[in-house]
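Key idea: predict the complex, not the pieces.
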Amino acid sequence: MLLNLNMAELLNPHIQPVELAKAYRLLNHGPTVLVSAQHEQEANVMTAAWACALELVPAKVSVVLDKSTKTRKLIEGSGYFALQVPTLKQIELVQALGSISQFDDPAKLEHCHTPLFHFDGFNLPMVEGCAAWLICELIPEPHNQQVHDLFIGKVVAAYADDRVFRDGHWYYHEADPSWKSVHHVAGGHYYTIGDAVDANKS
Amino acid sequence: MLLNLNMAELLNPHIQPVELAKAYRLLNHGPTVLVSAQHEQEANVMTAAWACALELVPAKVSVVLDKSTKTRKLIEGSGYFALQVPTLKQIELVQALGSISQFDDPAKLEHCHTPLFHFDGFNLPMVEGCAAWLICELIPEPHNQQVHDLFIGKVVAAYADDRVFRDGHWYYHEADPSWKSVHHVAGGHYYTIGDAVDANKS
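Result:
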């Protein structure tokens, strides 16, 4: 089921825009992310642990996408992708979307029971229930893509669920634990994000 | 005070080599890292949140280093750097090393009370008390370095403290909480890594 932003907002009024100059904060703590892409009629979502902020202004991100992935082909075709910050309550979805290739299972998204919606103006399959969404325009760099599997994107829109990110800050320490980001180590073993701690006390 | 590995091992027998094929696991959960570099007689350490694994075998990493940093100049001079995974008990050091530039304070490392040692064979100032250390040979890429401030390195040696990482796995969930990695969001606000959670239960 694909919804545009208006419909998504009706269903979830907590989805709020994030100032692009603060979009890096959505990734700064190093969460495992979901990568979405669509080209023509083909849509896919995959899990990636190797995503990172790359520049503050204009906001840019990087993500490593293996040549074996269908999502990579869709991004090369459309020139757009999205990074999303999933939550602990989505961990089985995160694991499934990172374990199954759409090349092997064309109905991967259905088989993983992936709840999707659209932001108005972007032909990208966004995952419902995430904590944050970054919509990115690919900056084509053939060397990085071919040699390093590294894809660079300019963030053109960013959103977060205000129950866990608002006013430019994460509230993992106040939100229900089910909102915590997940950080993959290997083989289905993850850590959640933990406690808030401030430096500069001295 | 700089010690070689033999001396370091005498002081800390918990420092153990990590198989290079598993070195990515040291960074996979997205911790904020310390970046070390030395060129001729000049040594520095800085904090970076934008570091990421880039390839499994041969193990490669990426790290974003602003043109304003002294550490970047040292890496450009020597062709080597190290990424280190600091711990909660080092959070004030992490914050200080990320707030002060050696261009402004040539005695930054002393003023930050940075405890250093050397691994034998590498002329790099390593920070005592970290959970892991990755020694990297710069893969020179002028475009990435100039346009994206992105530095890519091949991991040539990796070590971890076996009280928190051993047999290719993190043990944050069993170790004392002071060993937890720290994940910077912005302005001295961090989250620690949290609880272990496994997917694939279904």
